[in-house]
Design goal:
Blueprint (H helix, E strand, L loop, with lengths): L20 E6 L2 H15 L8 E6 L5 H10 L5 E2 L9 H18 L4 E5 L3 H13 L2 E6 L11 H12 L4 E5 L16 H4 L9 E5 L11 H15 L4 E5 L4 H8 L8 E4 L4 H10 E6 L2 H9 L4 E4 L7 E2 L29 H14 L2
Parallel strand pairs: 1-2, 1-4, 2-3, 4-5, 5-6, 7-8, 7-10, 8-9, 10-11, 11-12
Length: about 350
């Protein structure tokens, strides 16, 4: 009689949780500043089989982006070459789309997290819409309503919004500055040659490379700023540059430039925040800089393509009105304030987005 062998029981290994591969996209300094607190919080979590996070610099900014990386103590998993400043917006969008597609395919990304109103967010949204991937767009706060006055960026915003349901939208609150202003004090005369330490500052921050592309708007802005500086010699007018040749070329070639009209290279973030402490008003086309001005109660003038209250359009640059006529008659304020629970709330939202099927 054959002896029966004991039944063999083979235990199957426990089901392994699906591991998500998340790509965080940042093309500009502002986008990185918005994403950094959430990315750093997730990287500090030690979760077995938890999401793998990648940071991709799409190359829209150069020096300003690298300075911000150093300040935030972040290192991108890949930094794309700097986009050519003379590229048309359509060429820039196509180039960024190819870069995002290549990076996400190589990393086998399952989710994308993006922010801002530029080419990187738009390209990533189109990619998710066509490939069936999932993305979370952390829409930045725009308390000054700058985006609605910018033709290109408002169009990008509509494109991103139309890419649902593959692209989920979450509105970001105004976030607290990621720097201790008391711990980082600068002597502006040493950091920015030509700036008088006791003189008030007027900050002009034109960060869109498309400004002046189809006409002579950039040159007109520089000439108008020179007239403002001549009429107000007690104020130092400082252009905050992002190394845009369309802005710097007319500035460098300006004849009889007033001594109180200056241009600053891309600045470390703490130094930029220090400039705000000495500013008496700001002229900008950046929603992030506009929010900074509102948060510090600095009079704000927006620079857009279409007319808006307390705003300047290209057509207005031919006017001979002094800068005082453009300043807001009443202090510009915002009802949006920083909430202490904003960071954990957004972090929980991102976690729920990653865990949802």
């Amino acid at each position: 009689m054959t002896e029966l062998s004991a039944p063999q029981t083979q235990l199957s290994p426990p089901a392994r949780r699906k591991q998500y591969r998340v790509v965080w996209l940042a093309g500009t300094r502002g986008e990185l500043l918005l994403l950094a607190p959430f990315l750093q919080a997730f990287k500090q979590q030690l979760i077995v089989d938890g999401p793998i996070h990648f940071l991709f610099d799409t190359g829209e900014h150069g020096m300003a982006m690298q300075q911000t990386m150093d300040f935030l103590k972040l290192c991108a998993d890949e930094t794309a070459p700097l986009l050519h400043p003379a590229d048309e917006p359509s060429v820039r969008l196509q180039e960024v789309l190819e870069r995002v597609e290549a990076f996400t395919r190589q990393r086998k990304a399952s989710h994308l997290i993006l922010t801002g109103y530029g080419a990187s967010a738009t390209a990533a949204s189109l990619l998710c819409h066509t490939r069936g991937s999932r993305a979370l767009w952390l829409r930045p706060a725009d308390p000054a309503g700058v985006i609605e006055t910018l033709e290109l960026e408002s169009g990008y915003c509509r494109i991103i919004s139309a890419c649902g349901p593959r692209v989920k939208i979450a509105d970001l609150p105004i976030l607290q500055p990621q720097v201790d202003l008391k711990a980082d004090q600068y002597d502006l005369r040493e950091e920015l040659p030509g700036v008088r330490g006791d003189a008030p500052l007027a900050l002009i921050a034109v960060l869109r490379r498309e400004w002046g592309m189809r006409n002579d708007t950039t040159s007109a802005l520089v000439r108008r700023a020179a007239e403002w500086a001549r009429h107000r010699p007690e104020i130092d007018f400082v252009f905050l540059s992002n190394l845009n040749a369309r802005l710097e070329s007319p500035f460098r070639s300006l004849r009889e430039r007033p001594l109180n009209l200056l241009i600053a290279p891309p600045l470390p973030y703490p130094l930029y925040r220090e400039l705000l402490n000495h500013a008496i008003f700001m002229l900008t086309d950046s929603p992030l800089f506009a929010a900074d001005a509102l948060g510090t109660s600095i009079p704000l003038i927006t620079l857009g393509d279409t007319a808006k209250l307390n705003g300047i359009t290209p057509a207005d640059l031919s006017s001979d009105l002094p800068i005082d006529e453009w300043l807001p008659r009443k202090p510009t304020t915002t009802n949006q304030t920083f909430s202490a629970s904003a960071l954990p709330d957004i972090q929980n939202l991102i976690t729920n987005f990653l865990m949802a099927d």
